[in-house]
Write a structure and sequence with these properties.
By secondary structure, the chain is α/β, with parallel strands linked by helices. It has a single domain, classed as TIM Barrel (Alpha-Beta Barrel). The chain has eleven helices and eight strands. Strands 6-5-4-3-2-1-8-7 form an eight-stranded parallel β-sheet. Strand 2, helix 3 and strand 3 form a beta-alpha-beta unit. 43% of the residues are buried.
Length: 296
């Protein structure tokens, strides 16, 4: 999906929600991300991975230069910009695919959009000093994610006094109001309930089970469950063996109306969602009277 098509998709929502979810491919240009840390830190390797995802039919390439894994330390804006901008520029030289910048820092947002990114994916939901004003000025779509705490300590006994879904929805209501007051248009907002960000295994499972509750905001939902530790805890498997569990969660999310699936595994996830869409869309009336049967 090119940038203009993505922007039109945002403008057309919820009409566009009847389609299968968009596939957001993860490209971490970091040494310490939980699954692919270090694999794509070198510029040539990152660009090679981007080209692979393009061939696999990715809709959005999400580029991040700072790890947000539990316990991760922050890095400077200068270092983050140095990691992501060359990759954005090289992708933009050969493709008009939609690129999102996974950052919470205003200067990184500025530099990334100037280099060719068209979508801001912010785990701090524009709460970083200056981020709200920067996003409003850039007029790019923004994903507001819920996170309890900060990456360095968010998994230290996360606690919710009430219902986790209610608390996330209260957070969304507050951040949406702030964004609208700052001049960000409703069709520029996307919501991510933050699977794995300050939540226990049970919190994460309850959140996915209750995804329909987040549709009350009438905004696209993004979900990123790919190979995260909750799936490993449920299945008793290491990160490298969580493809099937990730796809199962993504299929469930699709059936709950999620609009964007963020994944490390573009080709496999896209095939799974395409198969589910075919089953959901088949017209029973058109098959009546047919004497053709597929054999095994």
């Amino acid at each position: 999906m090119n940038t203009e098509h993505f922007l039109q998709w945002c403008r057309d929502f919820p009409l566009s929600s009847s389609q299968k979810p968009l596939i957001m491919g993860i490209l971490n240009v970091t040494p310490n991300s939980f699954y692919d840390g270090g694999l794509f830190l070198a510029e040539d390797m990152a660009c090679k991975r981007a080209m692979e995802m393009l061939q696999q039919g990715v809709d959005i390439i999400d580029i991040g230069g700072e790890s947000s894994r539990p316990g991760a330390e922050t890095i400077s804006e200068v270092e983050e910009i140095a990691r992501v901008v060359p990759i954005i520029q090289r992708i933009r030289d050969v493709s008009d695919v939609c690129i999102s910048i996974d950052t919470c820092k205003p200067k990184v947002m500025d530099a990334a959009v100037s280099a060719g990114a068209s979508f801001i994916n912010d785990i701090k939901a524009l709460t970083h000093l200056g981020a709200l004003e920067t996003a409003a000025r850039l007029r790019a779509p923004v994903c507001l994610m819920h996170m309890k705490g900060l990456p360095k300590s968010m998994q230290d006994k996360p606690y919710y006094a009430g219902d986790v879904i209610d608390e996330i929805n209260d957070f969304f209501n507050q951040r949406i109001d702030v964004c609208l007051a700052a001049g960000i248009e409703p069709n520029q907002l996307i919501l991510d309930p933050g699977f794995g960000f300050g939540k226990t295994v049970e919190h994460n499972l309850l959140m996915v089970k209750g995804l329909q509750a987040f549709k009350c905001h009438h905004l696209p939902l993004l979900l990123g469950v790919s190979r995260k530790s909750t799936i490993g805890a449920v299945l008793g498997q290491a990160t490298q063996r969580l493809l099937a569990g990730s796809i199962a969660a993504n299929v469930y999310a699709m059936l709950q109306g999620v609009s964007i699936i963020r994944t490390h595994d573009v080709e496999e996830t896209k095939q799974a969602l395409q198969m589910v869409q075919a089953i959901c869309n088949v017209n029973h009336d058109k098959t009546r009277g047919s004497d053709q049967h597929e054999s095994t």
